Amino acid sequence: MNSLDWAVLIGYFGVMVAIGVWSHKRVDNVSDFFTAGGKMPWWLSGISHHMSGYSAVMFTGYAGIAYTYGVTSFVTWSFPIALGIAIGSKLFAPRINRLRSRLHVASPLEYLKNRYDLKTQQALAWSGMLLKIVDVGAKWAAIATLLSVFTGISLNQGILITGTITAVYCTIGGLWADALTELGQFVIQFLAGIAMFVAVVMELNDKGIGFLGAWDEPELQGHGEPLVGPYGTVFLLAFLFIKLFEYNGGMLNQAQRYMATSNAHEAARSARLSAVLWLVWPLVLFFPMWMSPLLVESQKADGSDSYGLMTEQLLPHGLLGLVIVGFFSHTMAMCSSDANAIAAVFTRDCAPVVWRRARAWSEGQGLRVARITTVVFLGLSMAAATQVNSPTFGDIITVVIKWVAGLMGPMAIPMMLGLLRPFRRSGPTAALVSWATGLFVFWLVNYPVHWNVDGGVPLQYQVSIPLAVSLVLYVLVGYLKPEDTPERLAIIERINTDDDGPGAAGAAAAVPAQQGGAPGVTVKD
Questions:
Q1: Taking the CB of residue 206, how many other CB atoms lie within 10 A of it?
Q2: For the chain, which domains are there?
Q3: N or C: which end of the chain has fewer CB within 10 A?
Q4: How far is CA 302 from CA 286, 299, 306, 398, in A?
């Protein structure tokens, strides 16, 4: 990097902070901070949903998969995400929006207190926050890894820089700042992605290989196969099922984008836009990664530095700075949205249970706590980032695929399936049994069993077995021990109906407030 690249990077940071300051004027209360007051346009929500779904891990971990295996990086990652979101646009997006518009909640988990009970809500809330600390830590480590390639600064210094800038703008402006910065980040990413795509095509032509002829080169032998290595059919199906839950709200931050739109129809439109973006745009981003074995030689065994090396080799200064800004765009978009979601969960779901005074917070007090929580969460995730390459967690891609995908299912199944009528019989017993057993099975297949099996448990089973066990138990326990009380059925009906209809107000009024939860959870018209 030279002074021009640094100017582009510093200018980007300045714009992000300026957007946060401007967004501060739009935040008057907790609802504005967490759900944009339900006033976000569907197209902004869709772009924000897309941008908050991936980070610099794509340019490190998934670049390594593309370098090693080829197109399977798209087939087993962005394609199932696009398909999962498309399904979710009908199945989950409208219902999640009604959590805000019908039940008047500000956190994706806030409704669980009445859908199940307080114990279930707390189990999912605290475990979800802990998982998010590890997840976001992997994102900080990914961007810091790239930054070290370009600038030579240490991993910890890179984590500190990116985390601090993100904390400033997302703490000041809440979800509005997240969405507006993500819009700007999408534009930057688009320009950077096109620049890299064109640079690679020109380099291939200069080498006499050509756009299509590259696939015949010996370095790319087998790279056109859709399912190779550990990323086979079982992994693809498991990943599709996982991403159906995760990217439609199971990891909380995407749920906020659905909640932020004005109504259920607009939420579905935002999901469809995000699905299209996930299907088309990653093809442009992945093509240079697929060609990378022809252009660079990775210095790392997993190939995670290949994209960074390629940008340094192919792009002139200025454009190099733009691509680096694109890396930051991904990571800061996801991490800021995660921070906002976790602040919502803590402020609305956890603090009122562990601290009596929190139940009487005014709007101003709740907003201050939300901002403090955002900073604390980002600090904890930055601390976790320094441990990503430790023996406990493993490398970046291991954290993202194994830990996040493997643990997401047991946490997301009670939340997401609890929205749907077919699972109305499953109550708090089913939710807690499926959650606890899923977590235990994840530990079992990743540690005691993994260590005692020659070659280890295959990756596809490490991520799919915990989810499968949780799903089966959630349905089975609900069938054997149904807990579909009138109050819980009233919650489900309010989420699933297109309009209030006759008697809806009476059904809503039948749902009582429970003690110890956040204010404003009771269903009302």
A1: 8
A2: 3-395 (1.20.1730.10)
A3: C
A4: 16, 9, 9, 11
DSSP string, 199-259: HHHHHHHHTT--TTGGGGSGGGTTTT-SSBTTB-HHHHHHHHHHHHHIIIIITSHHHHHHH
Q: What is the mean pLDDT of the chain?
A: 77
**SS3 assignment for 111-152:** CHHHHCCHHHHHHHHHHHHHHHHHHHHHHHHHHHHHHHHHHC
Whether residue 88 has pLDDT greater than 60 = yes
Q: Which amino acid is at 44?
A: L
- Residue corresponding to tokens 């991403």: 243
Instruction: Name residue 214's amino acid.
Output: A
| Spatial contact of 77 and 239, defined as CB atoms under 8 Å apart | yes
- Supply the DSSP string of 449-507, one letter for each residue: HHHHSTT-S-HHHHHHHHHHHHHHHHHHHHHHS----HHHHHHHHHHH-SS--TTHHHH
The enclosing H or E element of 508 equals helix 504-509
Instruction: Please give the model's pTM, rounded to 2 decimal places.
Output: 0.76
End-to-end CA distance of the chain: 56
Instruction: For residues 499 and 368, give the distance between their C-alpha atoms in angstroms, rounded to a whole number.
Output: 35
pLDDT in tens, 261-305: 888 999 999 999 999 999 999 999 899 889 888 888 888 777 777
Report pLDDT for 472. 94
